[in-house]
Design a protein that fits this description.
Blueprint: H1 2-6, H2 9-17, H3 26-40, H4 50-64, H5 70-73, H6 79-85, H7 89-101, H8 109-118, H9 120-149
Helix pairs in contact: 3-7, 3-9, 4-6, 7-8
Amino acid sequence: MDHLTDFHPAVVALRGRWRRPLRRYAPILIDLGLDHSLARCWGHHHDLPLEQFARLAQASLLAQSPHFPEPLRSRLDGFAELLLSYARPEGLLRALQGTASRLRRPYEPDAAMRLLCAEGSRLDQLLALLLPELRAQLEQELADGLTASGPLM
């Protein structure tokens, strides 16, 4: 799915507007910005409230956790809170800080936050454009998986 978003013409155009050094981190920053946009605009894209969806998703993941590697299992308890945090600016900033801290050449989280806030309406429009395409691709991949090798795990 990242391939679709990273090379989508609208994403490439948005990335082209950015200056260095943040342009280098555009795929990461756009992904985080879209997560923030989705959480803020959740009601436009899904019938369930975000909090209810996040709790159901966490419960589903916890039920499958014996099949996950340990580093992931230990992080599942905070999954719903993580999803919910993306709706708030401080949650986005925390995600930007965490991501920057894991990079060899980190970006400046405050500068990235300013950029994403300035691009807020563009990110909302981009999300509305990308979601139908992402859904269609996922449906196709699920159909291909079901027909090619039987049921998916």
